[in-house]
Amino acid sequence: MKNPVMVASGTFGYGPEYAELVDLSQLGALVVKGIAWEPTRGNENPRTAETASGLLNAIGLPNPGAEGFVREYMPFLRQHDVPVIVNIWGRTVEEYVRVAEYFEGIEGVAALEVNVSCPNIKEGSAVFGTDLDLFRRVLDAVRSATALTLIPKLAPNVAAIADFAKAAEASGADALSLINSVPALAVDVETRRPKLANVTGGLTGPAIHPLAVKLVWDAARAVRIPVIGIGGIATPEDALEFLIVGAHAVAVGTASFTEPRTAVRVVEGIDDYLQRHNMASVQALVGTFQCN
Amino acid sequence: MDCVTANVIHQEEVQGGYQVLFLDAPAIAPHVQPGQFVHVRVPHMEESVLRRPFSVYRADGPVLQILYKGVGKGTRTMTYLRPGDSLGLIGPLGRGWPRLTEGRFPILVAGGYGMAALYLLARSMPMQGIAFFGGKSAPDILCVNEFEALGWEVQISTQDGSRGTRGIVTHCIDAWWQAADLKGRQVEAYACGPNAMLQAVAERAMARDWVAWVSVDRNMGCGVGACLTCVLKTRTPDGGWRWQRSCKEGPVFECRDICWEDE
Ligand SMILES: Cc1cc2nc3c(=O)[nH]c(=O)nc-3n(C[C@H](O)[C@H](O)[C@H](O)COP(=O)(O)O)c2cc1C
Ligand code: FES
């Protein structure tokens, strides 16, 4: 990776959507929208609702399926100088394995981010992220299925994130990313109905940033593999907080909607910071949190 | 498509809470096709993570105009914009109105500020037809002079009868249709406004063999096709359906492509 700033799954499409506005080669990596083995249509409307400093979404992981994705988008992505991380999910362990095996043979895939934590899928995904035994099972199975770099993506709504981080490390994960969106609910008081068709959704954006920083801090102290900090990054300072508490890289999500070039600005802001503090590289900053 | 900071040249209230915002946007305005939109980052709304989409009302050289009504949180904040302020602008976005089919007679149908999305179309049409403007009340009828100046006949209806015919816009269309002599030409309709109005236009179009293009108004997130917030159900040739993104494949769709039963 050229720099430690990626764009987060589901917030940057499959690459072409933002390519006219953002120079993809300036991104540390591009994590594409979640891919399953079978094409999926996703949830009914409305799928998102704006909240205070945040966004509630229940998109429902619509995607063209693994083969559809490779056919439609990999030719484009291979032409660009940016590492491509494919975010994968399934409803069963077998589905995770199938999609993981498939990507092993696909040129131009730098890593798999294993989404075990989407709150908007009724069966499967979310449970894998919050039940430690299922979590281990799915990660062990995916690990045996592929030699690709594996990055499990953790759910925030667990009692002890360190346990999940350690379990992922033990199953052979190469890195961790956290957090996924936070289960949440918004109500229209006039109709007394939920604002989303799916009823509940996942909260993202600046509203969840301090929550994410705490969880990243907890996870980073528990493992030796690198952690990718995600959640509410809108400014370089937000990203720096993650690096200081121990993340080796970060991903920008919702803020790309607000300002498509947020990730590039975060890269520049981190460089400025490192210069001001006479640090040769991001490595020098990672985990330098002072707290006694 | 570009993402820029645009300076506010000027803003004026037209009538009844409707505003026209003039923006200096040389990287965007000259590229706007009729029916396209821009995605606006409203200043002084730091707690807001989403932009707001607006149809481009007019684009003249570097100057872009947006016509809107201050009703929601974002649009009310926009009414305070003054010359010298600036805002973030992404655009032009979406697929606008298709060209008039050779030999067809054009009608425009607008509800409320829907006429804003139709002005550039009216200006670029090879021939002038009839524009049907509907609204709740007289202050909701906008831009009549502008359309007439382009050579369009404008027929007005208001629900309270305070201007034009009393009733909804489709009544006006029906009355015109019964008496119309189009000399064998078929109608091509372009409609923008509330969903119920679009559906009423669609029903007429399907019953009368018109081509009808409707511009849908959907909640948007990214505006560029990445987030899949703005989807609507469209028919597929095999009798099924699929989602299309109103920010990318739309906002304009041919009315037969939309699954109205799910709207
Ligand atoms: C509209 C939307 C769609 C998302 N889709 C996915 C997805 O497909 N897979 C996934 O692992 N995370 C998905 N996420 C979660 C983000 O990748 C990220 O973890 C989360 O948004 C927190 O970061 P943020 O606060 O910077 O947005 C999605 C988020 C949003 C807002
Ligand atoms: S608004 Fe994001 S896909 Fe249309």
Textual characterization of the structure:
The complex is a heterodimer of chains A (292) and B (263). Chain A has 292 residues and is α/β, with parallel strands linked by helices. Chain A has helices at residues 16-19, 65-78, 93-104, 125-130, 132-145, 161-170, 209-222, 236-244, 255-258, 262-276, and strands at residues 5-7, 29-31, 48-51, 54-57, 84-88, 111-115, 149-153, 176-178, 182-185, 187-188, 193-194, 200-204, 227-230, 249-252. Chain A has a single domain (5-42, 60-185, 202-284), classed as Alpha-Beta Barrel (TIM Barrel). Helices cover 35% and strands 18% of the residues of chain A. In chain A, strand 3 and strand 4 form a beta hairpin. In chain A, helix 3 packs parallel to helix 5 (132-145), helix 6 packs across helix 7 and helix 8 packs across helix 10 (262-276). The radius of gyration of chain A is 18 Å and the shape is globular. The two termini of chain A are 33 Å apart. With 263 residues, chain B is of the alpha/beta class. Chain B folds into two domains: 4-93, Beta Barrel (Elongation Factor Tu (Ef-tu), domain 3); 105-262, 3-Layer(aba) Sandwich (Rossmann fold). Helix content of chain B is 16%, strand content 35%. Chain B has five helices and 16 strands. The longest helix of chain B has 14 residues, at 195-208. The complex binds flavin mononucleotide and FE2/S2 (inorganic) cluster. Residues 220-223, 225-230, 245, 247 of chain B line the site of FE2/S2 (inorganic) cluster.
Beta-strand residue fraction of chain B = 35-45%
Indicate the low-confidence ranges of chain B by residue numbers.
none
Work out the helicity level of chain A. Answer: 25-40%
Give the terminus-to-terminus CA distance of chain A: 33 Å
Order of strands, main sheet of chain A, comes to 7-6-5-2-1-14-13-8
What's the helix-strand series of chain B?
EEEEEEHEEHEHEEHEHEEEE
Say which molecules are bound, naming each kind only once.
Answer: flavin mononucleotide, FE2/S2 (inorganic) cluster
Strand content of chain A: 15-25%
Helical fraction of chain B: 10-25%
Within CATH, the superfamily of the largest domain in chain B carries the name Nucleotide-binding domain of ferredoxin-NADP reductase (FNR) module
